[in-house]
From TrEMBL:
<feature type="transmembrane region" description="Helical">
    <location>
        <begin position="140"/>
        <end position="159"/>
    </location>
</feature>
<dbReference type="InterPro" id="IPR000160">
    <property type="entry name" value="GGDEF_dom"/>
</dbReference>
<feature type="domain" description="GGDEF">
    <location>
        <begin position="254"/>
        <end position="390"/>
    </location>
</feature>
<feature type="transmembrane region" description="Helical">
    <location>
        <begin position="171"/>
        <end position="190"/>
    </location>
</feature>
<feature type="transmembrane region" description="Helical">
    <location>
        <begin position="90"/>
        <end position="110"/>
    </location>
</feature>
<dbReference type="InterPro" id="IPR050469">
    <property type="entry name" value="Diguanylate_Cyclase"/>
</dbReference>
<keyword id="KW-1133">Transmembrane helix</keyword>
<protein>
    <recommendedName>
        <fullName>diguanylate cyclase</fullName>
        <ecNumber>2.7.7.65</ecNumber>
    </recommendedName>
</protein>
<dbReference type="InterPro" id="IPR043128">
    <property type="entry name" value="Rev_trsase/Diguanyl_cyclase"/>
</dbReference>
<dbReference type="InterPro" id="IPR029787">
    <property type="entry name" value="Nucleotide_cyclase"/>
</dbReference>
<feature type="transmembrane region" description="Helical">
    <location>
        <begin position="34"/>
        <end position="55"/>
    </location>
</feature>
<dbReference type="Pfam" id="PF00990">
    <property type="entry name" value="GGDEF"/>
</dbReference>
<keyword id="KW-0472">Membrane</keyword>
<keyword id="KW-0812">Transmembrane</keyword>
Length: 397
């Protein structure tokens, strides 16, 4: 079974539309787990920077506290958005805004602050690129666009502001380019690996779903009779044992009734009309008890060739006899011709009924009692219902 690791990603990383949308949510959720801590790190660094600027010169702090406050507010907002699932669709955009704010306010402060070390504020651009790509993990193409904007703004500030010499400007610009190239390469590899992991999980999920569906089909094939749609012998035994187990745990408060019936003179039917007609007869007869079982726990099973079993949960013997007689009447009213029958000119059934109790508490005993009642119904002339009462006596209805 393929794991998904053998799927090759295109160099541009883009997946087909629905998968790309799913990956975006997956990526955002993975980033959201670490984004609050990254934002807290930014808050600490900005607070330390403002404290250092105040210790160096109150005049410098008077110029820098507003840009610092803006970045602090964006960092806090990023942390809050990451912690609330319904807000997370804004996470990447807010992370990008925070990184741009750090870079652009650094350029602005480097141009406006009157201090010999003011040029060091230009270093906020490479730091912002690292923040965007390494800490906040914005998508790769967002990071590329953001890096271009930040480095472009830095270049304009360096060469138009006239606050640094050409050599220092070149050093700062190359430092930013180096920071961008390394962080973007790392972001590309990280996102590629994350997409590969996402594809692997997606493929495995599909395989698990297909395997689960196949297991359901196999289970159905193993427990359902293909001709009539009723449970087969194996499925009947499993369901009946489960039902009686619940019956015994409930202290006998719920009654389980079993109706065992077969088609009268079915061998003669096959001999007269052929096996294909016999199959159609079985399907028609099986449809009647299936239409009469209404409860979630009720079921119909094909017990043998022309023998069927109906199991009714939470049903007393009296109510089960009503269902049995109604079933016998409706099958007779189908009017399926049966010239080989010695009791009628149409297809009929004989039914044996029993109810779980002291004389029949387990599945085998219950089926045996229903079989004895069926034998009585056939011995009394067929096309009728017989039952075993609570005292273990078999009586015709």
């Amino acid at each position: 079974m393929p794991s998904g690791s053998d799927i090759r990603l295109p160099w541009h990383l883009r997946l087909p539309g629905p998968l790309e949308r799913d990956f975006t949510d997956f990526f955002r959720d993975s980033v959201a787990r670490v984004a609050p801590w990254a934002a807290l790190n930014v808050v600490v660094l900005l607070s330390l920077a403002l404290a250092l600027e105040f210790s160096m010169s109150p005049e410098v702090a008077a110029s820098t506290w507003r840009p610092r406050l803006l970045c602090l507010m964006l960092a806090v907002a990023t942390a809050l958005v990451a912690r609330h699932g319904e807000w997370r669709r804004w996470l990447h955009g807010l992370s990008m805004a925070l990184a741009l704010a750090v870079a652009l306010t650094g350029d602005w402060m480097a141009l406006t602050v009157d201090h010999p070390l003011a040029f060091s504020l230009f270093l906020q651009t490479p730091l912002a690129i690292l923040l965007m790509s390494v800490l906040l993990r914005v998508p790769f193409y967002w990071a590329v666009a953001g890096s271009v904007v930040m480095i472009g703004a830095l270049a304009a500030s360096l060469y138009q502001g006239g606050r640094t010499g050409e050599d220092l400007a070149m050093v700062l610009l190359l430092l930013s380019l180096s920071s961008a190239s390394m962080s973007l390469f790392g972001q590309y590899i990280y996102e590629r690996l994350l997409r590969q992991h996402f594809l692997s999980e997606n493929v495995l999920f599909q395989h698990r779903d297909e395997l689960h569906s196949a297991n359901r089909v196999l289970e159905s094939q193993a427990t359902v009779d293909g001709l009539t749609g009723c449970l087969n012998r194996r499925g009947m035994e499993s369901r009946l044992d489960e039902l009686l187990h619940g019956f015994s745990r409930g202290g006998g408060k719920e009654r389980v009734s079993v109706l065992l019936f077969d088609i009268d003179f079915f061998k003669q039917y096959n001999d007269t009309y052929g096996h294909l007609a016999g199959d159609e007869c079985l399907k028609a007869v099986a449809s009647i008890p299936r239409s009469l079982t209404q409860g979630d726990k009720d079921f119909v099973a094909r017990y043998g060739g022309e023998e069927f079993m109906v199991v009714l949960a939470n049903t007393s013997l009296k109510d089960a006899l009503v269902v049995a007689e109604r079933m016998r009447t409706r099958i007779e009213q189908l009017g399926l011709p049966h010239s080989g029958s010695r009791v009628s000119q149409v297809v009929t059934i004989s039914v044996g009924v029993t109810c779980a109790g002291e004389h029949a508490a387990d599945a085998n005993t219950l089926i045996k009692c229903a079989d004895e009642a069926l034998y009585q119904a056939k011995g009394a002339g067929r096309n009728q219902v017989a039952y075993m009462n609570d005292q273990g006596r078999v009586l015709a209805l």
